[in-house]
């Protein structure tokens, strides 16, 4: 069976790392890069990873999505705040028969994409990793790295393709796990992302500061409990022990600034729609209210608006 | 009928202003002062007020509560965070037959005092004013000034004494209104204090910044609605139109930093117990949950703890 080809939309800390590892393993990989295009065309990728450092030269890099060739798998690793651009980015790499693998935070992207490209062509996954882009074409991957992913629609044919992608990722050195319950995977990640991404901005605190304060831990637990209740109502049956496990796991993490906090501190748009608004709306449709999560969203919207106003004054 | 005598416990922006106005009107007024004792003993009070500026010399000022004479009315205008000191502060000025008028923020102080001095000797009230202590013995009162107060226990004798106190306050130039429903007065004030004091710290924003953002107004409305529901459950029947009126009123206010925000910015203890924890607990006893108010409290506790830690490092 021939190796799959990959397009990488969003060549940052996630897409750059995984794409470079696939290319190193001999796959045809095509990167869409905006700001780093010229640098990567000349110098390739410089990957520092706790899985092993490497350089990758002769990279297939493109400045415009229109120049991308059709690929078997298009990995979508843009921030969700850029998703209004997708209708212009996906047609060329997805071609007639390619599929898209959404490696983005939050909820709702697969559903939205399915309406445009068809449910059978959509896969999604969650990444558990600490990785940053530290310079042009330069990724520093310091911890974890696992992808848990699966088809948005669970037909046998889709599960077969997911298994093939999973085998290729693992063969390329990426810890990948295939799941037949993407909804559950997404909600379990939200049990961390909603409290810890959200409160890290609302409280201006890294994980260790949050976990070190009893009032904050109470609040984190209340929010995780809301997310857990919403997950159940939305068909994702997660054992209640994961509420406490999520807190304990964070207690043993190294002090960490969430991606949302890094975005906010850098004056970038936060992924509020995907990580907060969509789950709140899904829960509401399922008859469950999430008052503290909603307050977190209202708080972050206020902070984002203020940040935008201050940014526009500069 | 002879004029009542007054003791002032907490000679700051509230106690200093009202006490000085009562003394100017010829009442026997006795001030307990800590930090400003020496200054006031020598120079008296310097009152700047939109009701009229004045100086007051030959002030009866005391450094220790043990030196205060028994007075008819002891006005309690300390911050509630100092209330653990009350058992040492009240016995001398209240004497055998004096009463206490609690002009503090929040909920629960009258109930707690009643257990110690007897329900018949407790009055309470809310102050609606913009006033600051800007230097030793120097008060700047820039807007409003009304006191709404009443007996904690509604016997006829207590209502008669409240009416007499009200007449004296008004005769001294203070806008005072007597109420036979102190519980309602307190909860209506909480409809402003909880959202606007609390969020001004949690969001680091003055009233105009909050009221200028739609997400924040939604959050303010949600919290006021929780307070209104709690008030109803606690026996304070407030017309629902006050939810929107409270927002509209704030919209037309001058940009204002709440007392809680000023306390926080100055590194002082915030009145979280009286303004947030006690109302949440009262609502809970009445079977009503206040999730967003509770989250606000959890957030502010986290911020207070962090501030205390940072303060102790200096």
UniProtKB/TrEMBL annotation, chains A, B:
Catalytic activity annotation: (R)-pantoate + NADP(+) = 2-dehydropantoate + NADPH + H(+)
EC number: 1.1.1.169
MF terms in GO: 2-dehydropantoate 2-reductase activity
Alphabetically ordered keywords of this record: NADP, Oxidoreductase, Pantothenate biosynthesis
InterPro entries: 6-PGluconate_DH-like_C_sf, 6PGD_dom2, ApbA, KPA_reductase, KPR-Related, KPR_N, NAD(P)-bd_dom_sf
Record domain Ketopantoate reductase N-terminal: where: 6-153
Key word Kinase present: no
Record keyword Cell membrane present: no
Pathway(s): Cofactor biosynthesis; (R)-pantothenate biosynthesis; (R)-pantoate from 3-methyl-2-oxobutanoate: step 2/2
Location of the Ketopantoate reductase C-terminal domain: 182-304
Role, per record: Catalyzes the NADPH-dependent reduction of ketopantoate into pantoic acid.
Family assignment from sequence similarity: Belongs to the ketopantoate reductase family.
Name of the molecule in the record: 2-dehydropantoate 2-reductase
Species annotation: Roseiconus lacunae
């Amino acid at each position: 069976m021939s190796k799959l080809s990959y397009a990488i939309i969003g060549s940052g800390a996630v897409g750059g790392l995984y794409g470079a590892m696939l290319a190193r393993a001999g796959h045809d990989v095509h990167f869409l890069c905006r700001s780093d295009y010229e640098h990567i065309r000349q110098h390739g990728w410089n990957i520092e990873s706790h899985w092993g450092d490497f350089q990758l030269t002769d990279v297939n890099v493109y400045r415009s999505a229109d120049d991308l060739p059709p690929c078997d798998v298009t990995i979508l690793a843009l921030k969700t705040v850029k998703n209004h651009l997708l209708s212009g980015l996906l047609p060329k790499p997805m071609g007639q028969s390619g599929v898209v693998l959404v490696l983005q935070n939050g909820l709702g992207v697969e559903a939205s994409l399915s309406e445009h490209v068809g449910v059978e062509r959509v896969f999604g996954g969650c990444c558990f990793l600490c990785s940053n882009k530290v310079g042009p074409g330069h990724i520093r991957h310091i911890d974890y790295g696992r992808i848990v992913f699966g088809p948005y629609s669970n037909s046998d044919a889709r599960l077969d393709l997911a298994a093939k992608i999973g085998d290729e990722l693992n063969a390329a050195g990426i810890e990948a796990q295939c799941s037949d319950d993407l909804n559950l995977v997404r909600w379990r990640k939200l049990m961390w992302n909603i409290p810890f991404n959200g409160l890290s901005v609302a409280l201006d605190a890294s994980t260790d500061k949050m976990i070190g304060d009893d009032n904050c831990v109470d609040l984190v637990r209340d929010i995780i409990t809301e997310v857990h209740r919403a997950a159940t109502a939305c068909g994702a049956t997660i054992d209640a022990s994961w509420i406490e496990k999520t807190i304990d796991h964070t207690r043993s993490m190294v002090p960490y600034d969430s991606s949302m906090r890094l975005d906010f501190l850098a004056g970038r748009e936060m992924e509020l729609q995907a990580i907060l608004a969509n789950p709140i709306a899904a829960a509401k449709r399922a008859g469950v209210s999430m008052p503290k999560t909603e307050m977190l969203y209202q708080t972050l919207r206020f902070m984002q608006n203020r940040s935008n106003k201050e940014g526009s004054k500069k």
